[in-house]
Specification:
about 950 residues, five-stranded antiparallel sheet, alpha+beta
Length: about 950
């Protein structure tokens, strides 16, 4: 015994020192400022430390996280996720949940959609372990939406499985089945047989629990076929066991026994099967042999199951085996042995008396014919009854003792209370109620200040709430709306009959389908003959366990007028360049869709603070409220997401805390203009978002309290970057059209005199061949006329582009061939030429001659921009929707002021050149329904992107 103790002590000592040596050896490899190497070492140490002390936060984990933040923002979020996963494996769910939440915040800031969804899944699983199934399902739904948008089917299927497990634990097998059937469709489409086999097996198990055995058998067989194709041995065992279990449920004992014997032989042929698998097979064989009356075999396999279950401490399996063996003994007429194993089963489950045990005991009482056996049954029943009574008495006594202790404690604390404390509590409660009332007033004021019609209806389509903007528009009061439906209001505005009927039909669809709806209508103003356009979005919400309709209607008349103006401009341009008009109309359609998509207001509205706060946070436009000193007091979730902070972090901050200095200064100056004029004002404001300039249209309005005093400023803004770019495109098209017409007219007028000069010079050359001096002057005149004529030809081509011929062609090969012609120019200018592509380039319709000319113009411009050498890189990107050719040089670059003029005729930054090259490239791209985008920085270089849509 002493030797064993010494050996045990040596083992512990070695483990401790070995552990310290491992940590010391890794720490010795840390290198100052080598963050990537240190990160890998910290991650190894963190994993080791979490295994050793899983119930404590790891110092190495935090070091790894901090190091990752220096390396890369996305790596920062992924590191938090990995650390959280380590803790989850150790079942430290509280610590894991904290790290997953931190990773979620970083991934949202980085807009890393896949990591966001993975965090949602892990947080949902942790909540499932805590039995918070409702919250878990909310997380799974958010993750599923992201995976569907990204078409990430493996993680989509994993999320379906998590959701199904939630429903199974709630015993809602119908919902679990519906989820798994969706997963089956996804995997069938993507032909992932390995995962499909697992899902099919799960579906079969659900049908088995629903007692739809035929359906269960069908899905098990499909799963087994796929498992055998993939040679997934462990999965084959599981599915074959399920198929054989169905035979037991159908009381086909001989077939079931044969299947389990084959399965046992299969399991013994490889080493990876778990002990639990053997226990389950032995148990099933006991049940099968009992069914066919072979009790000796049933006893043999039951004893094997008991031996293995005792060794591995499988308590639940042991109870089932005891019960199965007692059933076999009972049917074999060995009642005493049956009672022994029934008693063992009862001892394992003293708190819950299994009904099967009572049934077996009663049947055995009938079979006992001797007084001695009846006496043994009575004794056994009395012993069981005594055990139950003792257990119930113990529980009752414990509960009584707890109640007495709680009652004494309560009386003691009640005695210590004083009237002064009660008064303070009442005073604090009143103060809290006043603060809540003020907060509710402020939120109502914000909702009423939003320049859109906002309303809430109940399931009977009657108004529950409307905001001030809507009441002012119809010139009605609260009592005209509340508890009234559109049929009641229609009596006051008969001219709106058609519009109201559309709204009524839309509301019915929202309630019946429990879905969101959107309609755009032309409406006659109820108080004059003017017409307006409204975009109305309605959303189904459930509030207070009742169905409601939340609606937001926005006046889009200015947008409609702008669209009509755009259509008029497009029609006028169509006579000049029809191809350009089609492209512009497509851009306008996309612009409309983007504008409509941003007009979203979701969530719930009700009478309390919760209603207004929910509505405010779900409006997609960014909304904020500042005090008179431009300090943020309130904002919605969309605004918080835009600046990458939480709502709590924005409170009591100013613009300098959230934006760059110049941007913040501009925002605050606009605030001062609004507060000084006391008028609603609109601004186009700019700021950088993810290193890209973002243009937002901001409406700012002063907010007054009930006494009419200005207490702050309300702002709402939305992204109009695409819209402004489209407007610039229209202006440029108009300008080019005008310049082109003028240039074409001038070119035609000049071309004829130049032809006359050229003819006259040819006649002079014939008459004066001997005078060398005059001949050289005539040659200079002839060359100049030729150059002028070429320029005029280009100008005429720019003003009235000739029809191009489109044929099937490989754009990448056209580009490669063009640059091969210029290879000598690049070598002579000491310019390194590189090219690479991503994706396979499809054959498209292209005018090869003009496209080569356009690419050659781009290449020559790059060569001239790098007189001292440099690099010229071409990147090709092809996907299902478009092809991109990106040309990047390291030349002198173009200033911001000049960049806006590069497509203008005769504008050039070079000493030599006509200034028509970029305009011709623009025309060629328009003919191909493509676009050209130019980015440049002085002394850095220029990037030109040609984009070809795939129709």
């Amino acid at each position: 015994m002493k030797k064993i103790f010494i050996i045990f002590l040596l083992i512990i000592t070695y483990s401790v020192f070995a552990n310290d040596a491992y940590v010391d050896s890794l720490e010795a490899k840390l290198t100052p400022k080598d963050y990537r190497r240190n990160y890998d070492i910290f991650m190894l140490l963190a994993k080791h430390e979490i295994k050793q002390n899983p119930d404590q936060p790891s110092k190495y984990a935090e070091k790894a996280i901090n190091t990752a933040s220096y390396l890369d923002s996305k790596k920062h979020g992924k590191t938090l996720y990995i650390i959280a996963y380590y803790y989850k494996l150790q079942e430290q769910y509280e610590i894991a949940e904290d790290y997953f939440n931190r990773s979620l915040i970083i991934s949202k800031k980085n807009q890393d959609s896949e990591l966001i969804a993975k965090n949602y899944n892990q947080l949902g699983n942790i909540l499932r372990y805590k039995s918070s199934f409702g919250k878990a399902q909310n997380y799974f739904i958010l993750a599923l939406e992201i995976f569907q948008n990204n078409n990430n089917y493996p993680l989509m299927v994993a999320t379906y499985s998590y959701m199904a497990n939630c429903f199974k634990e709630l015993e809602d097998y119908t919902s679990a089945l519906n989820i798994l059937l969706k997963a089956e469709k996804v995997l069938t489409v993507h032909k992932d047989d390995k995962k499909l086999a697992v899902i099919l097996n799960s579906i079969g198990t659900i049908y088995k629990r629903l007692r739809q055995l035929d359906e269960a058998h069908k899905f098990y067989l499909r799963s087994l076929t796929l498992c055998e194709q993939e040679n997934a041995k462990l999965m084959i065992v599981k599915v074959r066991a399920n198929v054989a279990t169905l035979l037991l449920l159908e009381e086909r004992y001989q077939e079931a026994t044969n299947e389990f014997l084959k399965l046992l032989e299969y399991v013994e042929s490889f080493d990876r099967a778990k002990s639990m698998t053997y226990v389950q097979i032995y148990n099933s064989l006991c049940e099968g042999y009992t069914g066919i009356g072979n009790y000796d075999k049933a006893e043999e396999y039951a004893l094997k199951a008991i031996e293995l279950a005792l060794e591995k401490e499988y308590i639940n399996s042991l109870k089932v085996t005891y019960n199965n063996l007692s059933t076999a003994y009972y049917k074999a007429g060995r009642y005493e042995e049956a009672l022994v194993y029934l008693n063992k089963c009862f001892d394992l489950h003293t708190q819950i008396v299994n009904e099967t045990i009572f049934i077996n005991t009663k049947e055995m009482e009938v079979k006992y014919n001797t007084a001695e056996k009846e006496k043994q049954i009575i004794i056994l029943k009395k012993e069981n009854e005594i055990r139950r009574q003792r257990f119930v008495s113990l529980i009752a006594l414990s509960i009584l003792l707890i109640i007495i202790i709680m009652l004494v404690s309560f009386l003691y604390h009640l005695k210590l209370m004083t009237n002064k404390k009660l008064k303070n509590e009442i005073s604090e409660r009143k103060k809290t109620e006043l603060q809540l009332a003020d907060s509710e007033k402020l939120l109502k004021l914000v909702i009423d200040s939003i320049p859109a019609h906002i309303f809430l209806k109940n399931k009977d389509y009657k108004y529950v709430m409307v905001n001030k903007t809507m009441k002012d528009y119809y010139q009605l009061l609260d009592e005209d709306f509340i508890n009234h439906d559109l049929f009641d209001i229609l009596q006051k505005f008969p001219t709106l009959n058609e519009v109201f009927n559309k709204c009524i039909y839309n509301d019915i669809l929202v309630i019946e389908e429990k879905d969101n709806r959107e309609i755009t209508m032309e409406v006659m103003n109820p108080h004059d003959t003017s017409k307006q356009w409204f975009n109305s979005k309605t959303k189904y919400i459930e509030f207070g366990q009742q169905d409601h309709i939340l609606g937001v209607s926005l006046d889009i008349t200015p947008l409609k007028l702008a669209q009509k103006k755009l259509e008029n401009i497009n029609s006028s341009l169509e006579t000049i360049v029809s191809k350009r008009t089609k492209q512009l109309m497509g851009t306008n359609k996309k612009l409309k869709l983007e504008i409509f998509e941003r007009i979203k207001i979701e969530r719930k509205l009700a009478h309390s603070e919760l209603q207004y706060r929910t509505l405010l946070h779900n409006i997609p436009q960014r909304i904020f409220y500042k005090d008179l000193n431009s300090i943020y007091q309130l904002c919605n979730k969309s605004f918080a997401d835009e600046v990458g902070k939480s709502i709590e972090e924005i409170f009591e901050k100013n613009d300098y805390d959230l934006f760059e200095k110049d941007v913040a200064k501009n925002f605050i100056e606009n605030d001062k203009k609004v507060l000084s004029t006391m008028k609603i004002m609109e601004f186009d404001e700019r700021y950088l978002k993810n290193d890209t300039e973002c243009i937002v249209h901001t409406v700012k309005a002063p907010i007054r309290d009930e006494n009419g005093d200005v207490i702050g400023l309300l702002g709402i803004f939305w992204d109009v970057t695409a819209q402004r770019k489209a407007e610039q495109q229209i202006l440029y098209s108009e300008r080019i059209s005008g310049i082109g017409e003028m240039a074409g007219g001038v070119a035609h007028e000049i071309k004829n005199p130049l032809s006359n000069i050229s003819s006259a010079i040819q006649l002079l050359e014939e008459d004066i061949e001997t005078n060398e001096e005059i001949s050289s002057l005539i040659k200079i005149i002839h060359d100049s006329v030729t150059d002028a004529s070429d320029t005029i030809s280009k100008l005429i081509s720019f003003a009235s582009p000739q029809e191009l011929t489109l044929k099937d062609g490989d754009l990448w090969q056209i580009m490669k061939h063009t640059l091969t012609l210029l290879k000598g120019n690049f070598t002579q200018s000491n310019i390194k030429l590189t090219s690479h592509k991503i994706g396979e380039f499809p054959i498209i319709k292209v005018d090869e001659v003009h496209m080569k000319s356009a690419i050659m113009n781009i290449a020559m411009n790059a060569i001239q921009a790098m007189p001292n050498g440099g690099t010229f890189d071409i990147q090709g990107i092809a996907d299902k929707t478009q092809i991109k050719l990106i040309f990047t040089d390291s030349g002198c670059g173009i200033s911001k002021n000049q960049l806006n003029k590069i497509f203008d005729p005769f504008f050039t930054t070079k000493k030599i050149g006509s200034g028509l090259g970029m305009g011709l490239i623009y025309s060629v791209m328009k003919f191909h329904s493509g676009t050209i985008d130019v980015k440049s920085k002085v002394d850095v270089g220029t990037e030109i992107t040609l984009t070809f849509p795939l129709i």
